[in-house]
Amino acid sequence: GLVPGLLNLGNTCFMNSLLQGLSSCPSFIRWLEEFTAQYRTEQEKSQEHQHLSVTLLQLLRALSCQEVPEDDVLDASCLLEVLRVNRWQISSFEEQDAHELFHVLTSSLEDERDRQPRVTHLFDVHSLEQPEIIQKQISCRTRGSLPPVSNHWKSQHPFHGRLTSNMVCKHCEHQSPVRFDTFDSLSLSIPAAVWGRPMTLDHCLHHFISSESVKDVVCDNCTKIQAEGILNGQSIENQRTTFVKQLKLGKLPQCLCIHLQRLSWSNQGTPLKRHEHVQFNEFLVMDIYKYRVPGPKSSQEQLSQKSSEETTPGTKDGRAGKPSDAEQPAGTKPLFLNGASSSSSSSSFLMSPGTFPLTAFPECRAPLYLYRLVAVVVHHGDMHSGHFVTFRRAPGARGSQWLWTSDESVRRASLQEVLAASAYLLFYERVHGRAQ
Question: Which stretches does the entry tag as region Disordered (predicted)?
């Protein structure tokens, strides 16, 4: 009733722990199956061993018991070999980092996708905005046949998300165009702890998206206003003002990887590991961190709404690291917090395994972006040496059962043991609510 272990090839616990975590993400395995379907042709089969996606899929299918493995302990050296073919030189005899390997895998999969020959055309823009669109719904006034819609954007792996960066001038309240950046994992710093208060995942998330002031930025709108008040023909210098910068999540991925930064530096410049426990729950609501396109309201209303959101996030503590007694307005306070329950009633269902009780939410407040924990990677030791282990869900119908894996060793674990772990990587998978 357990999953296979993984052979330690000499300090390869970083790879073994990551593979166990990825194998508990069903949508990532499904994506790999769809992605590798292109290699089923005869001429490609001879080169299958060179494709990272094929090697990774075979390992993850075995670790999720979709293929019955011949042995209780698997050898993942084939993954290191295919990474070397992709010009990654990863020594298994030195200390390595599981989070770095995660980005090696995702970037290599993107490179593999980009090597496929594709014809890009204007309809790609439409499919980027609406990835669920079907080709039949697209019509255009043309005499020729409609070219096939490229699946370039649809083939993004399920860890792929987008961050939005919003800049607003403090002086004239002019908003700069929103910038988008991609991410594969959210790397969260752990803010300074407040004595007597537990550190929660919400604190880290709010610290990540909290607004900051950026000084001495050229404001085109202020410059334009200044120019209008001056006689024609007289040149003016660019107006520099202070902007407020705000990060939000523009596109939330199907699989969410959260990296808690446990590396810090002493005053003498030596690396230190932060050991404090960050509370997290089996379920994670991300609605408050999602970027929403502002409606036709005035910029003053938007700013006041932003400031109210900043001072009353989903925790009672106010902004991360800055305790505040500010409560959310009546009717908007969430029923539970990501990492600490706000009432005894919510803790009873958050701590229980199994499906999420959507009846706990009123119809109007069911979360749209609800995630369920599937794996936790833990690092034991200090900055110079240590060991990675993984808590993960058992595959298939036994998904409410948790397992502890450490290289070749696998045993059952309880949800309480998982939630008490000092997490380094958290893997969540999105679950669809009643409204969807």
Answer: 295-337
Distance in angstroms (rounded) separating the CA atoms of residues 221 and 171: 10
Q: What is the Cα–Cα distance from 25 to 31, expressed in whole angstroms?
A: 10
List of residues 6+ apart from 34 with CB closer than 8 A: none
Query: Could you say which of 13, 204, 219, 257 is catalytic?
Result: 13
Reported as a single tens digit per residue, the pLDDT across 350-399 is 333 334 444 444 444 678 899 999 999 999 988 878 899 999 999 987 77
Return the number of other C-beta atoms located less than 10 Å from residue 22's C-beta.
26
For residue 168, the cross-strand partners are 175, 244
Q: Where are the domains of the chain?
A: 157-253
Catalytic residue flag (residue 13): yes
Q: What are phi and psi for residue 256, nearest 5 degrees? A: -110, 120
CA distance 243 to 168: 5
Q: What is the rounded distance in angstroms from the CA atom of residue 202 to the CA atom of residue 289?
A: 10
Six token digits for residue 101: 């390997």
Phi-psi region of 353 (alpha: psi -120 to 50; beta: other; left: phi over 0): beta
CA dihedral of 310, 312, 317, 323, whole degrees rounded to 10: 60
What confidence tens digit (pLDDT) does each residue in 164-190 have? 988 899 888 888 888 899 999 999 999
Number of neighbours of residue 298 by Cβ within 10 angstroms: 9
Strand 199-200 relative to strand 278-279, pairing: parallel
Q: Is residue 113 a contact partner of residue 96, using CB atoms and an 8 Å limit?
A: no
**Whether residue 387 lies in the annotated active site:** yes
Out of 103, 152, 171, 387, which one is annotated catalytic? 387
CA–CA dist 221, 71 (Å, integer): 67
Q: What is the pTM of this model?
A: 0.76
Question: Other C-beta atoms within 10 Å of 11: how many?
Answer: 15
Round to whole Å and give the CA distance between 430 and 253.
Answer: 8
